[in-house]
Design goal:
The structure is a homotetramer. By secondary structure, chain A is an alpha/beta fold. The longest helix of chain A is centred in the last third of the chain and has 17 residues, at about 265-280. In chain A, the strands form two sheets. Chain A has an eight-stranded parallel beta barrel with strand order 3-4-5-6-7-8-9-10, surrounded by six helices. A two-stranded antiparallel sheet of chain A has the order 1-2. Chain A has helices at about 55-65, 90-105, 120-125, 140-145, 160-175, 200-210, 220, 230-235, 265-280, 285-290, and strands at about 30-35, 35-40, 45-50, 70-75, 110, 130, 150-155, 180-185, 215, 240-245. Chains B and C meet through helix 5 of B and helix 5 of C.
Chain lengths: ~290, ~290, ~290, ~290
């Protein structure tokens, strides 16, 4: 491609349509992981603790979210934390517990990578690689993700416009990996009642602009446990292809994000309510249809 | 009340609970207008043009939204416009057309007041008085609204935190008028794909903090016609007591807000979809239950 | 003027240049009040308490700021306050104290009007009428200001773009009053270390777009006393035509804005430092040149 | 250190004071690079192109900024770009040209690192390592910077509060590198007249909270060439220890940031004006005192 003079960091307007554009790929991208379709019409649910804190914590939480119908287990082994004195994650030990939890429950796993040097290793352990909000503009990491053979769950930066977000996803597709799942997780605004402002209109806007699947993370989007199920249901209604929520077997003891983590029972209740709304709009929560009760 | 030293414009913390607080009034406020309950569990729908442009435009639009199930007719006679060269509204002539539309359709009317000097006159014509986003901190107007004998539809400022918004509503209640309907209509953020960012989590947050009814305006919240029904449905799901939407009989000819105004047929379709979601959460769109078809 | 279809609240682009535009009026507007020029190259200083709280408080503060070189006395008689339980101002009694302070010190006065019904009265008492941030989009008030025979100190709304701000000023000019002084006073952002984020680049941007004088309010812009002189000096350097600061004879007892109010001695010190910077860029603080020491 | 339960991503409050805190280190940190002190009272100037585009472009620009008094040469070899189709930098070839420019001019160099895998290599070439806004929360990179033997020019994220910014700097200090230079470069707001909103009050706020030196980047802070010198001067006045500006020998041909890049002659003019202001507040532009003309 010819180099282009570009007077700003703005998005070039005179290029042929990008790989992420719906104009370029009319058919919705469906990402199949172990038989579970993300973007295929049904709604997938990713659940688990913010951080893998211990073998017991993870396995117990995994068993419970699996029992209540989650399709994927989430859990962070490498944690981006505002303070260097906060818990930073268990590293590879955490990845091993995630593997063990997968064997135990059959749930494919989603975990975050933060460092280009760890992409290979994380890729070996996980089924879906998460790139978090703070790394939305970590371009070397996006380029590595482009070479990766696993799907990427790619979260919106908390101060990224939708166009910037799509151009960042373009790095991954351009690199050769078209298995990208977008995730709205709240943007930073002046409002302080919620941790972020969950931008639910971003879901239909993204679905109009791109063929990639879009999920919603109401845990980070709100920061408060009681708001999570309410916003999860709204996410279903605005057309999200899935939900990612934090669930902890003992939120009051969590090393991170305890206030926004669901109790397992709260997760179970949310699943039932989401199912009712999914049915109302002619959709299914993935597992309820495809898995034996 | 004793004067209090207050080092900032911040909200005083050492006061007895405010009139707007749920702690102060445990029972949800229900506002009855001509037999229609706002806040009573069912969902009300306020529809009509941004501005009253002519007798024909208003009566035609009114007839159509009434036929499709709206509970209230909205329409601005006094219009707050960014530019002094934009259409400023028909003034009292517009209020007369609104009265005529009410006689024709039986729909109670909602219209905005911007000037303390016009409060009396607008109050004589309308069933619900709207105070718009730009006047959320127009304290003399709020004080007049406090003396008013009609319910106030009070929109959140596009730059207002939820706490500031509730303290502004407090002006109206303190003035003697406890018939206040809150309305989330989008906040200003850095995102430009939508006109504002509709803060749907504000609905449950408001419902937790106050006993006042809360409705949502997805027209201003998104700025795009196609997004309005999607976000209206999400508003129902997060617990809104009603929806206010702009409908125009010929949006492409509208003197304001044409891009975000629904066609009457789009409004009809939205009503059907909203009804399905209302039923899914055990609610009704008001008219469907109480009015003869 | 022909009505124009306008699909949004956006600013129309196809109009002849507006009255506020520099393209329309090449020469800088200079506003003369009692022999003091605002916009004429020298820097004016407006100082005084946030609110007029008592005769003693005002006269004492007025005497002191006058002695230290202020050109105008500010003080609010009608106060826009977030909470209805905060001090709301003394009303006309406050205006009378301001008149008395003018007689005592010779300083012309600046005070805020919030209600169209009070424009006439405030106009009778004051030399410059202030329209505050919260009323930047109070269009009936702007229209009254357009008919007013006194200069208008017109503050930027805390979430208004520069273009919206100028279109709001256009209301006043279009109404017939071309004596408008613009005032940057901080915008709302996500940052919480300061009360607002003082947007100093707005000063040269405004000076480029319009012929109107521009002043800066570092008191509201920062919310902290110790930051006020620092940002006042920077305001001089970026080209502001003046500064408006809050000074209180006993800030620790102020009924509003105490934390951001200068002590009289701090004001005196700020004036000396501002003078040095004004000289460095070839300007003067107004009084130092024109008044006898 | 004992692990701490932390219910949010918030900054823990119950820790002993952090390494970045002024309470912890009363004396201002002064960073000496080749005899040039950053933070020692004088003002340093870092100048050069956004990106190293070619040997000629860099050497020509370097010669000019050196001639006009810059203390450091900046230039990006690894470029974070919104679009993958924009120029991504010359990589190690760019670093080699920077070395050559250093030999030619004697100016120490500042260049950005984006990838943990490249920290070692960039560290070998450069005198100061830059970590850009988009990587402010790239924690693995911050940890590598902590092990690095070169000073870190660490830019504020465009969405970061001052407290978050300082906690991110804490990662570098905790890692063992106390040679950190902070840099305010504008934050994202709703305003669109400027590329970002340069938060100049952040300079005194940072200087109060931390002992680290603070510089300002008015090029990214404004996005417009004509605003750069104005805001650079204001930065001097609010207490910045230095300025970083983009200068290109042919801005109209720049592959990135051309609109905000100074012409060499504009840079020369800015230096003269900055010197006047530095003198007015009792400071010097570093080179003018210490280097032979």
């Amino acid at each position: 491609m010819k180099l282009k003079k570009d007077d700003s960091e703005g998005i070039p307007n005179d290029l042929p349509s990008n790989l992420v554009d719906r104009d370029n790929t009319k058919v919705d991208t469906v990402i199949n992981v172990n038989g579970i379709n993300i973007g295929g019409g049904d709604i997938v649910v990713i659940a688990g603790p913010c951080a893998v804190e211990s073998r017991d914590q993870l396995l117990d939480t995994a068993r419970q979210v699996s029992g209540y119908g989650a399709n994927f287990l989430r859990g962070g082994a490498f944690k981006p934390r505002t303070s260097p004195y906060s818990f930073q994650g268990l590293g590879e030990e955490g990845l091993q517990y995630l593997s063990e939890a997968r064997e135990l429950t059959g749930l494919p796993i989603v975990t975050e990578v933060m460092d280009t040097r760890e992409m290979e290793m994380v890729c070996d352990y996980t089924d879906i690689i998460q790139i978090g909000s703070r790394n939305m503009h970590n371009f070397p990491l996006l380029k590595e993700a482009g070479k990766c053979r696993k799907p990427i769950l790619f979260k919106r930066g908390l101060m990224a416009t939708i166009d910037e977000y799509l151009m960042a996803a373009e790095y991954i597709l351009k690199g050769g990996n078209d298995q990208v799942i977008l995730c709205e997780r709240g943007i930073r605004t002046f409002e302080t009642s919620t941790r972020n402002t969950l931008d639910l209109s971003a879901v239909p806007v993204l679905k109009q602009k791109t063929h990639l699947p879009v999920i919603v993370d109401p845990s980070h989007g709100t920061g408060h446990r009681w708001l999570v199920p309410i916003m999860a249901k709204a996410a279903v209604v605005v057309g999200a292809d899935g939900i990612m929520v934090e669930v902890h077997n003992h939120p009051e003891e969590a090393l991170s994000d305890g206030m926004q983590s669901l109790y397992p029972e709260g997760f179970a209740q949310m699943m039932k309510e989401m199912e009712i709304l999914a049915h109302a709009i002619g959709k299914e929560i993935f597992h309820l249809k495809h898995q034996p009760a």
